Amino acid sequence: MAHFAKLNNNIVSEVIVAEKNFINSGKVGDEFLWLQTSYNGNFRKNYAGIGFTYDKSKDAFIPPKPYASWTLVEDTCQWTAPTAYPDDGKMYTWNEDTTNWTEVV
Questions:
Q1: Exposure of 52 by Cβ count < 10 A (0-12 exposed, 13-18 middle, 19+ buried)?
Q2: Burial of 70 (0-12, 13-18, 19+ CB in 10 A)
Q3: What sign has the CA pseudo-torsion 97, 46, 13, 28?
Q4: CA–CA separation, 78 and 63 (whole Å)
Q5: Can you say how many angstroms the Cα of residue 105 is from the centroid of all Cα atoms in its chain?
Q6: 3-class DSSP state for residue 22?
Q7: How far apart are CA 18 and CA 8, in angstroms?
Q8: pLDDT tens across 43-78, in order?
Q9: pLDDT for the residue numbered 22
Q10: Which among 15, 46, 70, 92 would be 20 to 30 A from 53, CA to CA?
Q11: What number of CA atoms fall less than 13 Å from residue 65's CA on the CB side?
Q12: Which residue, among 22, 81, 82, 84, has the nearest Cα to 6 in the 3D structure?
């Protein structure tokens, strides 16, 4: 079995499990296109999820940008905060107003 993402204007609208011989592309003029996605990230960088964008030039599924201040890491196609998550064993949440991590108390 394999996983396929349904694209509408390069945005994932559905992910299904199907036989590996499931059509891996749409025909010219189709409203949507099905592309195979890798559950373990072996290809197309990330496992597709609803709302992800497919970037054809990178051949990658990119998750929605979580915050305006975050930037895309080109080799992983994952978003990263402008400051690293603290490594002190405490729990934090992102504060976009301060563009920093705030401890959860």
A1: buried
A2: middle
A3: positive
A4: 7
A5: 30
A6: coil
A7: 19
A8: 999 999 999 999 999 999 999 999 999 999 999 999
A9: 74
A10: 92
A11: 9
A12: 22
